[in-house]
Amino acid sequence: MNRSKARELAFKLLYQIEIQKEINREDIELFFENNEIISNEVQEYISDVVNGIGRESKTILDKISKNLKEDWEVERVSKVNLALLKLAIYEITYKQLPYKVVINEVVELAKKYGEETSHSFINGILASVVKEG
User: Fold this and answer.
1) Torsion angle of C-alpha atoms 129, 78, 49, 56, degrees rounded to 10
2) Domain limits for position 110
3) What CATH code is carried by the domain that includes residue 117?
4) CA 87, CA 106: separation in Å to the nearest integer?
5) How far apart are CA 133 and CA 25, in angstroms?
6) What is the pTM of this model?
7) 116/110 Cα distance (integer angstroms)
8) How far, in Å, are 37, 76, 82, 95 from residue 6 at the CA level?
9) What is the pLDDT of residues 55-66, one digit of tens each?
10) Buried/exposed 47-68: b ≥16 CB within 10 Å, e otherwise
11) Averaged confidence pLDDT in the chain
């Protein structure tokens, strides 16, 4: 399984977490089982993303909040967009993955799973996050 597919699966689990508000190890194992994720490498990647975002949640949410329009709050951001933003910010900031690749793939996921304007919203927020460093 390539990184793009693994990233999409990580997004799906992050979205599930946004809906459920919490997740435990059994939930992650069940997610792996239901999605037939048997590769240790993919399981480690997804676990790292979920745990890393959980660990850095406040900083990641601060970055999102700081780059929203003045009259917007994080609570107004759709769960799909929030999961995608968290994923991208984590990968860019903490995993030092090339921001162009991450943004491109997350924008494509936004086109697939988000609302009509999700891709441009996410692209704008992530461009601001990258500029601020």
Assistant:
1) 60
2) 3-132
3) 1.10.940.10
4) 8
5) 32
6) 0.93
7) 9
8) 9, 27, 18, 15
9) 999 999 999 999
10) bebbebbeebeeebbebbeebb
11) 93
